[in-house]
């Protein structure tokens, strides 16, 4: 049975474009994989604890020597890495906040970096390669080539580097100018925003078009 890991991180609730895109992708994935199962995480509603001193120490202390705090953090990392390892596909809804990813996504990634769990301790090779990862990104402004804020999106270039040690290779589908409908100063960009969203939706709809019916 095919299995999906679906993660959202937007704090915007029903107004969220990244949530709408990830939901659309999840529906498309399930349609292409009848009888499939899903694990869902909402990092905005149920945030993962940031990796603190105990979590860092747990990565350099043998598991049988962990104290209570180290063991608890290591167990959470094991659970999160296990969710990725069990999934054929990972969907991540990723809004851009203050030019970077939500801190909850950074916490999730930090827990994924664990020698012996997601990284082979002997070779340094990532152990999560081969799992498809699709990132549904929403950016309130415009950050494309030639725009005044080109290069200000620090989420999209960071994430592939952040998960690279694990072997994951994310693919991005991005809708931008998503604040045009609510920001009067961006009113003249509404047509471009609508076109960007339509293009992202069309790209989502092409996912798994050739997937075999299980």
Q: What can you tell me about this protein's structure?
A:
With 214 residues, the protein is α/β, with parallel strands linked by helices. The protein has a single domain (3-205), classed as Rossmann fold (3-Layer(aba) Sandwich), CATH 3.40.50. 34% of the residues lie in helices and 16% in strands. The chain has six helices and five strands, in the order E-H-E-H-H-E-H-E-H-E-H. The protein has a five-stranded parallel β-sheet with strand order 2-1-3-4-5, sandwiched between helices. Helix 5 links the parallel strand 4 (132-139) and strand 5 (170-176). Helix 1 runs parallel beside helix 6. The radius of gyration is 18 Å and the shape is globular. The N and C termini lie close together (8 Å). The mean pLDDT is 95.
Write a short abstract of this structure.
The protein contains six helices and five strands. By secondary structure, the chain is of the alpha/beta class.
CATH topology: Rossmann fold
Rg, nearest Å = 18 Å
The largest sheet is:
5 strands, parallel
Distance between the termini: 8 Å
Q: Judging by the overall fold, what is the CATH architecture?
A: 3-Layer(aba) Sandwich
* Main sheet strand line-up: 2-1-3-4-5
Instruction: Please state roughly what percent of the residues sit in beta strands, choosing from under 5%, 5-15%, 15-25%, 25-35%, 35-45% or over 45%.
Output: 15-25%
User: If you average the pLDDT, what whole number results?
Assistant: 95
CATH superfamily: Flavodoxin domain
Total helices: the number is 6
Structural category? alpha/beta
CATH class: Alpha Beta
Question: What number of structural domains do the residues give?
Answer: 1
């Amino acid at each position: 049975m095919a299995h999906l890991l679906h993660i959202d991180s937007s704090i915007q609730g029903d107004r969220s474009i990244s949530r709408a895109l990830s939901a659309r992708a999840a529906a498309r994935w399930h349609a292409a994989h009848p009888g499939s199962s899903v694990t869902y995480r909402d990092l905005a509603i149920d945030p993962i604890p940031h990796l603190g001193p105990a979590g860092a120490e747990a990565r350099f202390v043998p598991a049988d020597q962990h104290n209570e705090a180290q063991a608890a953090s290591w167990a959470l990392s094991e659970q999160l890495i296990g969710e990725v390892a069990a999934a054929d596909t990972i969907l991540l809804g990723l809004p851009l906040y203050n030019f970077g990813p939500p801190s909850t996504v950074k916490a999730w990634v930090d827990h994924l970096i664990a020698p012996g769990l997601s990284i082979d301790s002997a070779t340094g090779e990532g152990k999560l390669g081969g799992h498809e990862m699709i990132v549904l990104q929403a950016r309130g402004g415009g950050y494309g080539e030639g725009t005044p804020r080109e290069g200000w999106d620090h989420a999209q270039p960071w994430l592939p580097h952040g998960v690279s040690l694990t072997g994951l290779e994310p693919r991005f589908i991005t809708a931008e100018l998503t604040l045009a409908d609510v920001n009067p100063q961006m009113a003249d960009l509404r047509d471009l925003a609508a076109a960007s969203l339509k293009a992202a939706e069309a790209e989502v709809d092409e996912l798994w078009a050739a997937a075999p019916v299980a």
